Amino acid sequence: MEDAREIARIVRENTKPEMVAVDSSTSEKVNVMLVPDGMSAKSTKSFFDELKEKPDRRQGTISIKRVSSFIDIVNRFKNENSVIFAKAQVSETSLAAHVKAIFDYHPEGGDVSQAENLGHKAEYKFPTTHEFEKWLSLNNKGLDQEEFAYFLEKNVNALVEPEENDKLFVSKLGAKFADPIDILELSRELEIYSKESLVQKHKTSSGERELKFTTEHTDASGTPLSIPDCFVIRVPIFEGGAPIRIVCQLRYRKREGKVTWYYEMYEVSTMLEQAFEASCEKIKEAVELPLFYGESE
Fold first, then answer.
1. What is the average pLDDT across 1-7?
2. Considering only CA atoms, which of 17, 237, 26, 224 is closest in space to residue 132?
3. Other CB atoms within 10 A of residue 52 CB
């Protein structure tokens, strides 16, 4: 046993690192260092790179804060193979969108020997405005009378008069629109009363009976309520972008003497995708590069 340990000690102490040149897939050789502890192979590239005045290639991702800067940086580094990828994740209550330029992208064609590194990039994440985020965060969320009134008063500048295009947009709903004054008064002063009744019908020929329970909502004077179906807001979605018009459908529910208000931004996912694509097309035009909707490899 002692002899075996002594042999192992001698081997360990006399095993030295060794530099080996290994043939690569190109005509160049790659230096590899064989080190003790099983003589595992270690690349020496990082050590030699420290001695170089310039890197072998550009790599890294530039994070951009403004769309104008993204356009400038793309125009600075682009070449004939550069491309842009654009992607947006849209839901009724959130939006995450970005564009990414890859300067050293693969050239066109099926020649794999011409593949590039895809290591030099620039990315811009579209920041949404605070005005839009406030409206989106409460989309389809129930608000009591006081909360609804407070929210509208704080965001009154977003309320605008409905236009003919807004009405055409939701024409299939047959909707009644409210102007800003109407919607504010509705949220501040409305008291809703319920009048419930039970109607019984009896068919003498068949003996069938039909019971129908109805509820009618009226204002304080007893007049049946006429609640508008929609109102319109105008807010910019992306920072630095133009404001867009969004139709909001209005609903309410009365339960146990309390009224809950809801608004739903009509086809908001479609509106967000259209706004995102419009911004992407402006970028594409400014940098004159191919733009693909999706995620890069």
1. 57
2. 237
3. 8
Q: Are strands 95-102 and 83-90 parallel, antiparallel or unpaired?
A: antiparallel
Q: Alpha-carbon distance 243 to 40, whole Å? A: 61
pLDDT value, residue 197 = 38
Residue-wise pLDDT tens digits, 77-96 = 999 999 999 999 887 777 88
Beta-bridge partners for 172: none
d(CA 178, CA 169): 15
**253 within 8 A of 215, measured Cβ to Cβ:** no
> Residue ranges of the alpha helices (H) in the chain?
2-14, 45-49, 67-77, 130-137, 145-154, 164-169, 180-189, 268-287
Res. 74: pLDDT tops 50: yes
Under 8 Å between Cβ of 137 and 151: no
User: Can you tell me which residue has the tokens 């842009």?
Assistant: 84
For residues 139, 142, 145, 150, the Cα torsion angle rounded to the nearest 10 degrees is -40
Sheet holding 41-43, edge to edge: 18-23, 29-34, 41-43
Other beta carbons within 10 Å of 254: 13
Better-predicted residue by pLDDT, 200 or 264:
264
Cβ-based neighbours of 83, under 8 Å, separated by 6 or more:
101, 102, 105, 289, 290, 291, 292
Output phi, psi for 145, to 5 deg: -55, -45
Q: Answer left, alpha or beta for residue 174, where phi above 0 means left and psi between -120 and 50 means alpha.
A: left
For residue 126 the two structure tokens come to 């579209």
- The answer to whether 266 and 246 are in contact (CB under 8 A) is yes
- Report pLDDT for 192: 43
Tens-place pLDDT, residues 100-153: 999 999 988 888 778 888 899 999 999 999 999 999 999 999 988 888 888 988
> Residue 122: what are its φ and ψ, rounded to 5°?
-140, 140
